[in-house]
Please model this.
Amino acid sequence: MLKKMNLPNKITILRIILVPIFIVFMALPTDWAWTKWTALGIYIVASLTDFVDGYISRKYNMVTKFGKIMDPLADKLLVSAGFVMLTGLGIIPAWISIIIIFRDFCVTAFRNFGSDHHSDVGAVFSGKIKTVFQLIGISLAILAISLYTSYNGFGEFIFSAVNMTMIQLMINVLMSVSIVVAVIFTLWSLVDYFLKFKKDINVEE
Model:
């Protein structure tokens, strides 16, 4: 099957494969500092593949139906994994992760309705912006953990602003801003997808 795939689709599959590897390193004992740095590296590489496969597919006209379906799925897996792991570590509030995952389930349903009626299931602009800020926010959060967190023995991290350097404080602020913007665009994109596919939603079928 891989031999029949074009390069963008292979990169998309790579991103999906990197997700469970990222989860493993995030789940390893926190006092092993190298595990979070490794997780950060994996997450950044996986995030970059999102932009690389999209660029190649558009530049060389290699857009496929497989790519339109699997690329957003790969993004959802990567983003959901990041938010769930960070929520488990006490970095991101659970309600934010719930909003992110709830939106992704809804959009998947909308896409299914659209696919059944042969509508374009490609990503909307607000959805792309949402993904960018989500990936940036998660990457900054993992960087923050790697740089200046202390472990209290109960599975939660304590961020102390008093002990932060200016760089650490800036990372924390940028992370918070990125997550807030991501939540805003997450809700915005949910509305956009509903409006895009509402004509395909037929409750009588």
